[in-house]
Structures are given as structure tokens and as C-alpha cells.
Write a structure and sequence with these properties.
By secondary structure, the chain is of the alpha/beta class. It folds into 2 domains: about 5-185, Glutaconate Coenzyme A-transferase; about 200-440, Glutaconate Coenzyme A-transferase (3-Layer(aba) Sandwich), CATH 3.40.1080. The protein is built from 16 helices and 24 strands. The chain has helices spanning about 5-15, 20, 45-50, 70-75, 90-95, 110-115, 145-150, 200-210, 225-235, 250-260, 285-290, 300-305, 305-310, 345-355, 415-425, 430-440; strands at about 30-35, 60-65, 80-85, 100-105, 125-130, 135-140, 155-160, 175, 180-185, 220, 245-250, 275-280, 295-300, 315-320, 325, 330, 335, 340, 360-365, 370, 380, 380-385, 400-405, 405-410. The strands form 6 sheets. An 8-stranded mixed beta sheet has the order 13-12-11-10-14-19-23-24, sandwiched between helices. β1 (about 30-35), α3 and β2 (about 60-65) form a beta-alpha-beta unit. α8 (about 200-210) crosses α9 (about 225-235), α9 (about 225-235) runs parallel beside α10 and α15 (about 415-425) packs antiparallel against α16. The longest helix has 13 residues, at about 430-440. It is globular and about 75 Å long.
Length: about 450
């Protein structure tokens, strides 16, 4: 391999082309990879969509779109483009409900091995940071499964965005120009951001006992949404010391902890002094903190989410949210009946990993009730059984801590009647009598149970 910078510059110019020319690498019947969140292409997506009338049977995979996809918008009937998604954003959810997109189930930690061992990838189109002096394009805010995707691809097109942060990595965070087939430049394209929005008063009520259960020196994982954000904001204002993080998604809550002096990563047994993550999504301030920061390390998702890795760290606290849980302890965090809302993601990975950790806690937090915006009807998020078609994200055998505004209970090791008793104790009081009645009908309510 050559080492002179001028050689890389010359190779760059040779491979530099327009989006319209680059997408000519896509042929009828191809499987095309768009990647995840911020790594998804913008100019290449538009150029590929423009070829709708001349192409046939193009299958596109992506994960969690942050803006409308042209291949979906131009072809909602999927005459040319069939788009599948590993984890739904709000945009993806609507497209899926309308039949313009399909869902691909997976445990997040398995995604790289699924690409390596099972899937065909004809063309990968990935947004990357600017090339460095050694000829490498950094994957930026999304390591996750990006390396596995591009290594499996027969052709690789990179969309170079100078606004993409350079995210230093443990491994799997970059691709060399010699492994790239075409280069497209995308100056002036903003990297998608999402605002940090803390939750409401109920979220704060749920967060309080969770934060009180976190010891100094703990290693944290936070999920996405107002409830985990509330936990993070409360931790930032607490007096906890020397916290660390090992999380699939790096969010603004960790930046808040860092600014307040709570986050040092000094007490971690694994990757000490490094905050470990697989992808990042948040504000521009978060991205500026991540850029070229040697105290942070991006790793592929099959390392970050591996329960065997997570279990090596003492006092690992995992905090995620869900949609509902039934009296047996089955958790759904991704669908309401057959209606797909998000995806399995890494919730089960971290629930398992936290259980393996000495002093660890895998916490699933949720509001006790949900009020439908259209009908105004309020229902309990703790239900007798999950509705037909609802996806079980965490099986009852792996469910540990459940938290609502009425308390926290640990289901691990409990019998069905003990689980029913524990879960009803943290349900909204207005629904407890009905839940007890259902538990009795299902023969999981003991005469001595507390009411």
C-alpha cells in the first residue's frame, strides 16, 4: 500500500464523480445499503430515485431515517424500490403503516454478523467524513454495523460530508480509499440533529428512584426518549461521582453529565478513561464534543452490545423505556399489536448484559398509563396479556427491573403470581382492581397476595 499523501489525493480525484454517475453502479435486482441515521446518503438517494423508470427490482436497506427518503417518496407503491428498515423512526413508522416500507427484525448486536454471514450487498452508499492524510474516510457518528456493510458490498460509494464529525474509534470506524469505488462530495449538507427534550413531571417521578439506585463509579447505558433524558438530566444535577458510559447510542444526556463533572470514565474495568458508544444522535453541541475527542471511542455494535462484554463491568446500569408490559413480565418496546413503532434495537442486549454485571441493574421504565390522543381514552401500560400481534422485545425470562411513577420492582426469579403482585403494585391505582381480577382468571393471583 502506498503511503504518500499525494497518492491518496490523486486516487481521490480519479474516483471523484457526480451523484448521477455514481449511482450507475446500481443494476437491476441489486441490494443497496443506505446505512443508519446520519450515515444515510442525501445526494446519492436523490440520484438513485431519479433512475426509478429505468431500473427494476431494487431492494434498499436502511436503519432509522432522520429525513424523508427519496426512494420512498418517489415510489410509494414500490414498483421499483422495495425499502426495508431495521429500526423505525417517526418517518419510517408512517411509511411502514402506509405499506411503502417493510420492517426487518433483529437484535442489534447481531446486525454485523447478519451482514457478514447471511446477506448480499451489491452497492453500499454511505455518508462519511472528509478523507484524512492517510487515505481514510471516517464513518463519523455511526460505527454500528457500517464496517460490516461496506466490507460485504461488491461496490462502495461514499458521500463525503465535511460537516460530519471525525469520531475516533476503538475499531471499525473507517474505510480506506483503496476500498472505495466512487466518491461524491456533499458540501453544505447539514448533519441531522435532534433536540434534547427532557420528559414531563411523571418522567421526573420515575427517574428519581432510578437515580437513587445508581452508585458512584457506575457505568451507564441510556436509551432514547424523554424518560431516559430525564434520568440523564437528573444524574447531571446529582452528586454522583466518576460515572462512565458504555452505550449503543451516545446522546446529549451524557454530554450534560460530562459538563457537570459527573462523567469521568475513570472507574470502568473495561476501556477505562474512554466513553464507549456505537452511534451518536443529538444536538450540534453533542457533535462538537464528539469531534476528534480522544476520551470517546466508537466501536461496532457487536462489541458494544455484546452481553458478555457488558457483563465484565461492575455496577452496569441500563435504562430503557417500553410501550407496555404484561403480568407475566413480557415487555414490548416496539409494537402495538401488529403496528410497528420502532424496533428491538439493543434493549434485550443490555438487559441481559446488565444482569451479568456484578451490582448491575437492567431497568425498563415507563409511564403507568397511556392516553390516546384521538379518543382521549386512558389505558394501563401494565396489561394482563399483550395484545395479539404485539412483539415481545424482552421475554419474561430475561426481564429484571420495571419502573413506573409508582415504584420499581425486580421480576427476575419470581413466579407468575409474584410477578403479578409486583407489577400490579406499580400500576396506576385506577386499574389495579381490574388487573387483580384478570390475574385471578389467569390463575396467577394467590389468595395471600397484597392488594
Amino acid at each position: 500500500m502506498v503511503n504518500d499523501v499525494s497518492e491518496w489525493t490523486e486516487m481521490y480525484q480519479q474516483k471523484l464523480t457526480t451523484p448521477e454517475e455514481a449511482v450507475k453502479l446500481v443494476k437491476d435486482g441489486d441490494w443497496v445499503e443506505y446505512g443508519m441515521t446520519t450515515s444515510q446518503p442525501v445526494l446519492l438517494d436523490a440520484a438513485l430515485a431519479a433512475r426509478k423508470e429505468e431500473l427494476k427490482d431494487i431492494k434498499v436497506r436502511e436503519t432509522m431515517s432522520l429525513f424523508p427518503r427519496k426512494v420512498v417518496e418517489c415510489d410509494p407503491m414500490r414498483d421499483t424500490f422495495t425499502v426495508s428498515n431495521w429500526h423505525m423512526s417517526g418517518y419510517d413508522r408512517k411509511a411502514c403503516a402506509q405499506g411503502a416500507m417493510n420492517f426487518s427484525p433483529m437484535c442489534f448486536r447481531n446486525q454485523p454478523s447478519i451482514y457478514r454471514d447471511l446477506l448480499d450487498v451489491d452497492v453500499a452508499m454511505i455518508t462519511v467524513a472528509s478523507m484524512d492524510g492517510h487515505g481514510y474516510f471516517n464513518f463519523g457518528l455511526c460505527a454500528a454495523a457500517t464496517e460490516a456493510m461496506v466490507q460485504k458490498a461488491k461496490k462502495v460509494i461514499v458521500e463525503v460530508n465535511p460537516n460530519m464529525p471525525r469520531c475516533l474509534g476503538g475499531l471499525g470506524e473507517a474505510i480506506h480509499i483503496s476500498d472505495v469505488d466512487a466518491i461524491v462530495e456533499a458540501p453544505g449538507i447539514a448533519i441531522p440533529t435532534i433536540p434534547f427534550v427532557a420528559g414531563d413531571e411523571i418522567d421526573a417521578m420515575i427517574a428519581k428512584p432510578i437515580v437513587e439506585a445508581i452508585p458512584d463509579g457506575a457505568t451507564l447505558q441510556l436509551g432514547i426518549g424523554g424518560l431516559p433524558n430525564s434520568v440523564g438530566a437528573m444524574i447531571a444535577k446529582s452528586d454522583l461521582k466518576d460515572l462512565g458510559f458504555h452505550t449503543e447510542m451516545l446522546v446529549d444526556a451524557f454530554y450534560l453529565m460530562y459538563k457537570e463533572g459527573r462523567l469521568t470514565n475513570k472507574a470502568k474495568r473495561l476501556n477505562r478513561n474512554k466513553g464507549v458508544y456505537s452511534f451518536a444522535l443529538g444536538s450540534q453541541k453533542l457533535y462538537d464534543w464528539i469531534d476528534d475527542n480522544p476520551s470517546l471511542a466508537a466501536f461496532p455494535i457487536d462489541y458494544v452490545n455484546d452481553p458478555a462484554v457488558i457483563g465484565q463491568m461492575d455496577n452496569f446500569i441500563s435504562i430503557n423505556s417500553c410501550i407496555e408490559v404484561d403480568l407475566f413480565g413480557q415487555v414490548s418496546a416496539e409494537s402495538k399489536g401488529p403496528h410497528q413503532i420502532s424496533g428491538t434495537g439493543g434493549q434485550l442486549d443490555f438487559t441481559d448484559g446488565a444482569y451479568r454485571s456484578r451490582g448491575g441493574k437492567g431497568i425498563i421504565a415507563m409511564h403507568s398509563t397511556h392516553t390516546d390522543k384521538k379518543s382521549g381514552v386512558t389505558t394501563s401500560n401494565i396489561c394482563p396479556t399483550l395484545a395479539q400481534g404485539t412483539t415481545v422485545t424482552d421475554p419474561r425470562s430475561q426481564t429484571c427491573w420495571i419502573a413506573t411513577e409508582y415504584g420499581m420492582v425486580n421480576l427476575m426469579g419470581k413466579s407468575t403470581w409474584e410477578r403479578a403482585e409486583a407489577l400490579i403494585s406499580i400500576a396506576h391505582p385506577d386499574f389495579r382492581d381490574e388487573l387483580i381480577k384478570k390475574a385471578e382468571e389467569m390463575k396467577i393471583w394467590r389468595y395471600s397476595n397484597k392488594k
